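Hi R.,

Here are the chain sequences for the assembly we discussed:
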Amino acid sequence: MNYPTGIKKSHNVIINYSHRGMTLEDDINQTNKYYRDNDIAYIYKKPTPIKVTKVDFRKDRTSTIKEAFYEEPSTTDYNGIYKGFYIDFEAKETKNKTSFPLANIHKHQLKHLENIIRHGGIGFIVVRFSMLNETYLLKAEDLFSFTKSSQRKSIPRSYFKDKGKMLKESFRPRLDYLKVIDNFLEVKNNDKEKDK
Amino acid sequence: MNYPTGIKKSHNVIINYSHRGMTLEDDINQTNKYYRDNDIAYIYKKPTPIKVTKVDFRKDRTSTIKEAFYEEPSTTDYNGIYKGFYIDFEAKETKNKTSFPLANIHKHQLKHLENIIRHGGIGFIVVRFSMLNETYLLKAEDLFSFTKSSQRKSIPRSYFKDKGKMLKESFRPRLDYLKVIDNFLEVKNNDKEKDK
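And here is the predicted structure of the full complex:
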Protein backbone atom coordinates (compact mmCIF):
# COMPACT_ATOMS: atom_id res chain seq x y z
CA MET A 1 0.00 0.00 0.00
CA ASN A 2 1.27 3.47 -0.83
CA TYR A 3 0.97 6.25 1.68
CA PRO A 4 0.41 9.79 0.50
CA THR A 5 3.26 12.22 0.56
CA GLY A 6 3.54 15.22 2.84
CA ILE A 7 3.22 13.39 6.16
CA LYS A 8 4.52 15.82 8.78
CA LYS A 9 6.68 15.19 11.84
CA SER A 10 4.99 14.84 15.21
CA HIS A 11 6.17 14.09 18.73
CA ASN A 12 4.22 10.95 19.50
CA VAL A 13 3.95 9.02 16.26
CA ILE A 14 6.34 7.26 13.95
CA ILE A 15 6.78 9.04 10.63
CA ASN A 16 6.47 7.54 7.20
CA TYR A 17 9.82 8.17 5.53
CA SER A 18 9.03 5.81 2.68
CA HIS A 19 8.98 7.77 -0.55
CA ARG A 20 8.17 4.75 -2.71
CA GLY A 21 6.30 5.88 -5.80
CA MET A 22 6.66 9.55 -4.96
CA THR A 23 8.74 10.70 -7.90
CA LEU A 24 6.68 9.01 -10.62
CA GLU A 25 3.48 10.19 -8.96
CA ASP A 26 4.85 13.70 -8.81
CA ASP A 27 5.84 13.60 -12.49
CA ILE A 28 2.39 12.40 -13.49
CA ASN A 29 0.58 14.92 -11.30
CA GLN A 30 2.61 17.75 -12.82
CA THR A 31 1.99 16.41 -16.31
CA ASN A 32 -1.75 16.21 -15.66
CA LYS A 33 -1.68 19.77 -14.38
CA TYR A 34 0.07 20.83 -17.58
CA TYR A 35 -2.60 19.04 -19.64
CA ARG A 36 -5.36 20.81 -17.69
CA ASP A 37 -3.70 24.23 -17.77
CA ASN A 38 -3.40 23.92 -21.55
CA ASP A 39 -6.92 22.51 -22.01
CA ILE A 40 -5.51 19.27 -23.47
CA ALA A 41 -6.99 16.64 -21.15
CA TYR A 42 -8.72 16.41 -17.78
CA ILE A 43 -7.08 13.56 -15.91
CA TYR A 44 -6.87 13.45 -12.12
CA LYS A 45 -5.39 11.23 -9.47
CA LYS A 46 -8.10 9.78 -7.28
CA PRO A 47 -7.75 10.54 -3.57
CA THR A 48 -6.39 7.71 -1.42
CA PRO A 49 -9.38 5.87 0.08
CA ILE A 50 -9.43 6.36 3.84
CA LYS A 51 -11.89 4.95 6.34
CA VAL A 52 -12.61 7.58 8.98
CA THR A 53 -13.57 6.20 12.40
CA LYS A 54 -13.30 9.20 14.74
CA VAL A 55 -13.94 12.87 13.99
CA ASP A 56 -13.69 15.93 16.15
CA PHE A 57 -16.66 17.60 14.48
CA ARG A 58 -16.93 21.37 14.15
CA LYS A 59 -19.36 23.49 12.24
CA ASP A 60 -16.76 25.83 10.76
CA ARG A 61 -15.42 23.17 8.34
CA THR A 62 -12.21 22.70 10.31
CA SER A 63 -13.19 19.29 11.68
CA THR A 64 -10.20 17.18 12.65
CA ILE A 65 -10.09 13.47 11.89
CA LYS A 66 -8.73 11.75 15.01
CA GLU A 67 -8.63 8.17 13.80
CA ALA A 68 -8.71 6.69 10.31
CA PHE A 69 -7.28 3.82 8.29
CA TYR A 70 -5.99 3.37 4.77
CA GLU A 71 -8.20 1.22 2.56
CA GLU A 72 -7.40 -0.72 -0.59
CA PRO A 73 -8.36 1.20 -3.73
CA SER A 74 -11.11 -0.46 -5.80
CA THR A 75 -9.95 1.10 -9.04
CA THR A 76 -6.79 2.47 -10.59
CA ASP A 77 -5.29 5.74 -9.37
CA TYR A 78 -5.78 7.92 -12.45
CA ASN A 79 -8.69 8.54 -14.77
CA GLY A 80 -10.17 11.23 -16.93
CA ILE A 81 -10.99 12.37 -20.43
CA TYR A 82 -8.86 13.02 -23.53
CA LYS A 83 -10.26 13.79 -26.99
CA GLY A 84 -13.60 12.38 -25.89
CA PHE A 85 -12.03 9.10 -24.75
CA TYR A 86 -12.21 7.67 -21.28
CA ILE A 87 -8.62 7.29 -19.97
CA ASP A 88 -7.70 5.01 -17.07
CA PHE A 89 -4.32 3.95 -15.75
CA GLU A 90 -2.18 2.87 -12.85
CA ALA A 91 1.40 4.05 -12.24
CA LYS A 92 4.02 2.10 -10.29
CA GLU A 93 7.71 2.26 -9.57
CA THR A 94 9.93 -0.74 -8.97
CA LYS A 95 13.50 -0.98 -7.69
CA ASN A 96 13.83 -4.27 -9.51
CA LYS A 97 16.17 -3.93 -12.52
CA THR A 98 15.11 -6.90 -14.60
CA SER A 99 11.35 -7.21 -14.19
CA PHE A 100 8.18 -5.64 -12.80
CA PRO A 101 6.53 -7.77 -10.08
CA LEU A 102 2.80 -8.00 -10.78
CA ALA A 103 2.17 -8.05 -7.03
CA ASN A 104 2.57 -4.26 -7.27
CA ILE A 105 -0.89 -4.04 -8.81
CA HIS A 106 -3.94 -5.32 -6.92
CA LYS A 107 -5.97 -8.04 -8.63
CA HIS A 108 -9.13 -5.92 -8.61
CA GLN A 109 -7.19 -3.10 -10.28
CA LEU A 110 -6.25 -5.48 -13.10
CA LYS A 111 -9.89 -6.59 -13.32
CA HIS A 112 -10.90 -2.92 -13.43
CA LEU A 113 -8.54 -2.23 -16.36
CA GLU A 114 -10.00 -5.26 -18.17
CA ASN A 115 -13.52 -3.88 -17.69
CA ILE A 116 -12.46 -0.47 -18.97
CA ILE A 117 -10.96 -1.67 -22.24
CA ARG A 118 -13.88 -4.06 -22.85
CA HIS A 119 -16.20 -1.03 -22.62
CA GLY A 120 -14.21 1.06 -25.07
CA GLY A 121 -11.93 3.00 -22.75
CA ILE A 122 -8.19 3.47 -23.04
CA GLY A 123 -6.39 1.62 -20.26
CA PHE A 124 -2.70 1.26 -19.54
CA ILE A 125 -0.03 1.08 -16.87
CA VAL A 126 2.98 3.35 -16.44
CA VAL A 127 5.94 1.53 -14.89
CA ARG A 128 9.18 3.11 -13.79
CA PHE A 129 12.31 1.05 -13.22
CA SER A 130 13.64 3.61 -10.78
CA MET A 131 17.20 2.23 -10.49
CA LEU A 132 17.55 2.51 -14.27
CA ASN A 133 15.48 5.69 -14.57
CA GLU A 134 13.41 4.11 -17.34
CA THR A 135 9.65 4.70 -17.57
CA TYR A 136 7.35 2.71 -19.86
CA LEU A 137 3.75 2.94 -20.90
CA LEU A 138 2.22 -0.49 -21.52
CA LYS A 139 -1.29 -0.70 -22.95
CA ALA A 140 -3.73 -2.84 -20.99
CA GLU A 141 -4.21 -5.02 -24.08
CA ASP A 142 -0.50 -5.92 -24.05
CA LEU A 143 -0.49 -6.31 -20.28
CA PHE A 144 -3.27 -8.90 -20.53
CA SER A 145 -1.64 -10.66 -23.50
CA PHE A 146 1.22 -11.27 -21.11
CA THR A 147 -0.76 -12.30 -18.03
CA LYS A 148 -2.99 -14.63 -20.08
CA SER A 149 -0.16 -16.41 -21.85
CA SER A 150 2.33 -16.62 -19.01
CA GLN A 151 2.30 -17.98 -15.46
CA ARG A 152 5.14 -15.63 -14.48
CA LYS A 153 4.54 -13.33 -11.53
CA SER A 154 6.58 -10.51 -12.99
CA ILE A 155 6.86 -8.91 -16.40
CA PRO A 156 10.42 -8.82 -17.77
CA ARG A 157 11.81 -5.41 -18.62
CA SER A 158 12.42 -6.74 -22.12
CA TYR A 159 8.64 -7.08 -22.57
CA PHE A 160 8.21 -3.37 -21.79
CA LYS A 161 10.99 -2.56 -24.29
CA ASP A 162 9.33 -4.74 -26.90
CA LYS A 163 5.60 -4.04 -26.45
CA GLY A 164 5.55 -0.80 -24.45
CA LYS A 165 6.71 2.70 -25.22
CA MET A 166 9.47 4.41 -23.28
CA LEU A 167 8.42 7.78 -21.85
CA LYS A 168 11.19 10.36 -21.99
CA GLU A 169 11.26 12.97 -19.26
CA SER A 170 11.22 16.56 -20.38
CA PHE A 171 10.60 20.00 -18.94
CA ARG A 172 6.98 20.64 -19.89
CA PRO A 173 5.16 18.38 -19.71
CA ARG A 174 7.33 16.23 -17.49
CA LEU A 175 6.14 12.90 -18.88
CA ASP A 176 4.15 13.30 -22.08
CA TYR A 177 2.28 10.01 -21.98
CA LEU A 178 -0.61 11.26 -24.11
CA LYS A 179 1.75 11.42 -27.09
CA VAL A 180 1.85 7.62 -26.96
CA ILE A 181 -1.95 7.55 -26.74
CA ASP A 182 -2.10 9.77 -29.85
CA ASN A 183 -0.20 7.11 -31.82
CA PHE A 184 -2.54 4.49 -30.46
CA LEU A 185 -5.62 6.50 -31.51
CA GLU A 186 -4.14 7.03 -34.98
CA VAL A 187 -3.71 3.28 -35.45
CA LYS A 188 -7.27 2.73 -34.19
CA ASN A 189 -8.66 5.31 -36.65
CA ASN A 190 -6.71 3.81 -39.56
CA ASP A 191 -8.12 0.39 -38.70
CA LYS A 192 -11.62 1.89 -38.75
CA GLU A 193 -11.01 3.51 -42.14
CA LYS A 194 -9.85 0.16 -43.52
CA ASP A 195 -13.02 -1.50 -42.28
CA LYS A 196 -15.16 0.90 -44.31
CA MET B 1 -18.76 19.96 2.89
CA ASN B 2 -20.06 16.42 3.13
CA TYR B 3 -18.61 14.00 5.63
CA PRO B 4 -18.46 10.30 4.80
CA THR B 5 -20.93 7.95 6.36
CA GLY B 6 -20.11 5.29 8.91
CA ILE B 7 -18.45 7.50 11.50
CA LYS B 8 -18.41 5.47 14.72
CA LYS B 9 -19.05 6.56 18.29
CA SER B 10 -16.10 7.33 20.51
CA HIS B 11 -15.69 8.58 24.09
CA ASN B 12 -13.72 11.76 23.50
CA VAL B 13 -14.97 13.22 20.25
CA ILE B 14 -18.19 14.71 18.98
CA ILE B 15 -19.95 12.49 16.49
CA ASN B 16 -21.22 13.52 13.08
CA TYR B 17 -24.95 12.80 13.15
CA SER B 18 -25.55 14.80 9.99
CA HIS B 19 -26.86 12.47 7.33
CA ARG B 20 -27.08 15.13 4.67
CA GLY B 21 -26.65 13.53 1.26
CA MET B 22 -26.52 10.04 2.68
CA THR B 23 -29.64 8.59 1.10
CA LEU B 24 -29.04 9.84 -2.42
CA GLU B 25 -25.40 8.81 -2.18
CA ASP B 26 -26.46 5.37 -1.00
CA ASP B 27 -28.96 5.04 -3.87
CA ILE B 28 -26.33 6.01 -6.42
CA ASN B 29 -23.67 3.74 -4.93
CA GLN B 30 -26.07 0.79 -5.04
CA THR B 31 -27.09 1.66 -8.58
CA ASN B 32 -23.45 1.83 -9.67
CA LYS B 33 -22.84 -1.55 -8.03
CA TYR B 34 -25.80 -2.95 -10.00
CA TYR B 35 -24.34 -1.52 -13.22
CA ARG B 36 -20.96 -3.10 -12.46
CA ASP B 37 -22.37 -6.46 -11.38
CA ASN B 38 -24.31 -6.61 -14.63
CA ASP B 39 -21.39 -5.37 -16.76
CA ILE B 40 -23.40 -2.31 -17.87
CA ALA B 41 -21.12 0.53 -16.79
CA TYR B 42 -18.11 1.16 -14.56
CA ILE B 43 -18.85 4.25 -12.56
CA TYR B 44 -17.38 4.86 -9.09
CA LYS B 45 -17.61 7.44 -6.38
CA LYS B 46 -14.26 9.07 -5.81
CA PRO B 47 -12.93 8.79 -2.25
CA THR B 48 -13.31 11.92 -0.12
CA PRO B 49 -10.02 13.86 -0.31
CA ILE B 50 -8.32 13.86 3.08
CA LYS B 51 -5.03 15.50 4.04
CA VAL B 52 -3.17 13.22 6.43
CA THR B 53 -0.84 15.00 8.86
CA LYS B 54 0.04 12.33 11.45
CA VAL B 55 0.37 8.59 10.97
CA ASP B 56 1.18 5.84 13.41
CA PHE B 57 3.16 3.87 10.86
CA ARG B 58 3.37 0.08 10.96
CA LYS B 59 4.80 -2.36 8.50
CA ASP B 60 1.86 -4.77 8.61
CA ARG B 61 -0.48 -2.43 6.67
CA THR B 62 -2.51 -1.58 9.77
CA SER B 63 -1.12 1.94 10.11
CA THR B 64 -3.44 4.26 11.98
CA ILE B 65 -3.98 7.84 10.88
CA LYS B 66 -3.89 9.99 14.02
CA GLU B 67 -4.61 13.39 12.50
CA ALA B 68 -6.11 14.39 9.19
CA PHE B 69 -8.36 17.01 7.63
CA TYR B 70 -11.09 17.02 5.00
CA GLU B 71 -10.11 18.81 1.81
CA GLU B 72 -12.27 20.35 -0.90
CA PRO B 73 -12.72 18.02 -3.87
CA SER B 74 -11.19 19.31 -7.12
CA THR B 75 -13.63 17.40 -9.30
CA THR B 76 -17.11 15.94 -9.11
CA ASP B 77 -17.82 12.89 -6.97
CA TYR B 78 -18.67 10.33 -9.64
CA ASN B 79 -17.04 9.34 -12.89
CA GLY B 80 -16.58 6.34 -15.11
CA ILE B 81 -17.34 4.74 -18.45
CA TYR B 82 -20.60 3.77 -20.19
CA LYS B 83 -20.83 2.51 -23.78
CA GLY B 84 -17.39 3.96 -24.44
CA PHE B 85 -18.40 7.39 -23.17
CA TYR B 86 -16.76 9.26 -20.32
CA ILE B 87 -19.42 9.91 -17.65
CA ASP B 88 -19.06 12.58 -14.96
CA PHE B 89 -21.54 13.90 -12.43
CA GLU B 90 -22.23 15.40 -9.04
CA ALA B 91 -25.13 14.40 -6.79
CA LYS B 92 -26.71 16.66 -4.17
CA GLU B 93 -29.71 16.72 -1.88
CA THR B 94 -31.51 19.81 -0.77
CA LYS B 95 -34.16 20.33 1.89
CA ASN B 96 -35.35 23.36 0.00
CA LYS B 97 -38.75 22.71 -1.61
CA THR B 98 -38.80 25.36 -4.31
CA SER B 99 -35.25 25.62 -5.63
CA PHE B 100 -31.76 24.15 -5.57
CA PRO B 101 -29.14 26.55 -4.14
CA LEU B 102 -26.11 26.59 -6.41
CA ALA B 103 -23.89 27.09 -3.37
CA ASN B 104 -24.25 23.32 -2.92
CA ILE B 105 -21.82 22.80 -5.78
CA HIS B 106 -18.28 24.22 -5.60
CA LYS B 107 -17.28 26.63 -8.35
CA HIS B 108 -14.37 24.44 -9.45
CA GLN B 109 -16.77 21.50 -9.73
CA LEU B 110 -18.91 23.52 -12.14
CA LYS B 111 -15.77 24.49 -14.05
CA HIS B 112 -14.81 20.80 -14.13
CA LEU B 113 -18.19 19.82 -15.61
CA GLU B 114 -17.76 22.53 -18.26
CA ASN B 115 -14.35 21.13 -19.20
CA ILE B 116 -15.77 17.62 -19.43
CA ILE B 117 -18.57 18.42 -21.84
CA ARG B 118 -16.30 20.64 -23.95
CA HIS B 119 -14.02 17.60 -24.38
CA GLY B 120 -16.82 15.26 -25.43
CA GLY B 121 -17.78 13.69 -22.13
CA ILE B 122 -21.27 13.31 -20.68
CA GLY B 123 -21.72 15.55 -17.65
CA PHE B 124 -24.74 16.11 -15.45
CA ILE B 125 -25.98 16.71 -11.93
CA VAL B 126 -28.41 14.61 -9.93
CA VAL B 127 -30.45 16.70 -7.49
CA ARG B 128 -32.84 15.37 -4.89
CA PHE B 129 -35.46 17.57 -3.28
CA SER B 130 -35.50 15.38 -0.20
CA MET B 131 -38.62 16.90 1.44
CA LEU B 132 -40.58 16.15 -1.74
CA ASN B 133 -38.77 12.90 -2.51
CA GLU B 134 -38.15 14.04 -6.07
CA THR B 135 -34.87 13.32 -7.84
CA TYR B 136 -33.87 14.93 -11.13
CA LEU B 137 -31.08 14.47 -13.62
CA LEU B 138 -30.08 17.74 -15.28
CA LYS B 139 -27.56 17.65 -18.11
CA ALA B 140 -24.57 19.96 -17.70
CA GLU B 141 -25.56 21.72 -20.95
CA ASP B 142 -28.90 22.72 -19.43
CA LEU B 143 -27.27 23.59 -16.11
CA PHE B 144 -24.97 26.06 -17.88
CA SER B 145 -27.77 27.44 -20.03
CA PHE B 146 -29.31 28.46 -16.73
CA THR B 147 -26.21 29.82 -14.99
CA LYS B 148 -25.18 31.77 -18.09
CA SER B 149 -28.54 33.41 -18.64
CA SER B 150 -29.53 34.05 -15.05
CA GLN B 151 -28.00 35.85 -12.09
CA ARG B 152 -30.04 33.73 -9.68
CA LYS B 153 -28.15 31.82 -7.04
CA SER B 154 -30.56 28.90 -7.06
CA ILE B 155 -32.25 26.87 -9.77
CA PRO B 156 -36.04 26.73 -9.41
CA ARG B 157 -37.56 23.29 -9.12
CA SER B 158 -39.68 24.16 -12.17
CA TYR B 159 -36.48 24.34 -14.25
CA PHE B 160 -35.64 20.76 -13.25
CA LYS B 161 -39.20 19.70 -14.17
CA ASP B 162 -38.93 21.47 -17.49
CA LYS B 163 -35.36 20.74 -18.64
CA GLY B 164 -34.36 17.78 -16.48
CA LYS B 165 -35.64 14.22 -16.20
CA MET B 166 -37.21 12.87 -13.05
CA LEU B 167 -35.55 9.68 -11.81
CA LYS B 168 -38.01 7.18 -10.40
CA GLU B 169 -36.81 4.97 -7.59
CA SER B 170 -37.16 1.25 -8.15
CA PHE B 171 -35.85 -1.99 -6.68
CA ARG B 172 -33.01 -2.86 -9.03
CA PRO B 173 -31.37 -0.64 -9.97
CA ARG B 174 -32.41 1.83 -7.31
CA LEU B 175 -32.06 4.93 -9.50
CA ASP B 176 -31.64 4.06 -13.17
CA TYR B 177 -30.01 7.28 -14.31
CA LEU B 178 -28.32 5.68 -17.32
CA LYS B 179 -31.75 5.21 -18.92
CA VAL B 180 -31.88 9.00 -19.25
CA ILE B 181 -28.38 8.99 -20.72
CA ASP B 182 -29.54 6.38 -23.27
CA ASN B 183 -32.19 8.81 -24.54
CA PHE B 184 -29.57 11.52 -24.71
CA LEU B 185 -27.20 9.30 -26.72
CA GLU B 186 -30.05 8.35 -29.09
CA VAL B 187 -30.75 12.02 -29.80
CA LYS B 188 -27.02 12.61 -30.30
CA ASN B 189 -26.78 9.69 -32.75
CA ASN B 190 -29.86 10.84 -34.67
CA ASP B 191 -28.33 14.28 -34.99
CA LYS B 192 -25.17 12.69 -36.38
CA GLU B 193 -27.17 10.66 -38.91
CA LYS B 194 -28.95 13.83 -40.05
CA ASP B 195 -25.59 15.56 -40.56
CA LYS B 196 -24.48 12.85 -43.02
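Helices of chain B lie at 22-37, 107-118, 140-149, 157-163, 177-195. Chain B touches chain A through 59 residues (CB under 8 Å).

Let me know if anything looks off.

Best,
T.
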